Amino acid sequence: MFLLAAENVTKSYYKKNLQIPVLKGVNFGVCEGEFVSIVGQSGSGKSTLLHLLGTLDKPDNGIIRFDGNRIDNLLAKRRDTLRNRSIGFVFQFYHLLPELTVLENVLSPLMIRHSVLGYWFSRKHYHAKTQHLLEQVGLQHRLKHKPSELSGGEMQRTAIARALVMEPKILLADEPTGNLDAVSAQEVIALLRHLCTQNRLSVVMVTHDSNIAAVADRSVKMIDGQIF
Length: 228
Ligand code: ADP
Ligand code: MG
Known about the structure:
Blueprint: E1 4-15, E2 18-30, E3 35-39, H1 46-53, E4 61-66, E5 69-70, H2 76-86, E6 87-90, H3 102-113, H4 116-121, H5 123-136, H6 152-164, E7 170-174, H7 182-199, E8 202-207, H8 210-213, E9 218-223, E10 226-227
Bound molecules: adenosine-5'-diphosphate and magnesium ion.
């Protein structure tokens, strides 16, 4: 069974009265501990599918399931909880908070999840956990740095650590190497591969680069709003 799946999903955007069909009946799934890449040209609908899988947006038709349960129609609060606890996101442009250090950026989902008091009581545990994660992604020497003091690869590895701090079951990565030089891209891909193999983390990675996609267990193509 799939951990996360889209069943017969359609999605259109509207500009004025003009309908722009983007997803045209997508069936897609990822198993627990599986690394799947979605390859396709710009504009084919990859990001749209990833947003629907991660409940950042809703399909027009069709169903999104997590662990067998329908999640596309959850009430906002339950959906936000599910997303916060079970789904990690990584984007092309990192989206780190510039005023915060590396350590604070990675801690930020824990701060959002817990009350001030709850956070304060557990802060030593959270700091230790965050430092351990930053060691795993090779950034133990950058804890106090601000994002502007990091390379692209370091920023993306910080974003990956942040995505993992809530111990999600699945990571959704949208062109995670799209803004990186070849060496940094390989490091980030090797890290994702390692996390999947060692921690049984499921990964769905969108890319337009077939060399990057090849690291996955399985690769599917998105062409004009359909998966092949
Ligand atoms: P990809 O990630 O494969 O490049 P996207 O899923 O971002 O593709 O976009 C697919 C199509 O949907 C593109 O033609 C894009 O212009 C259009 N699109 C994406 N988001 C919106 C939006 N919010 N409003 C209108 N059109 C959009
Ligand atoms: Mg995209």
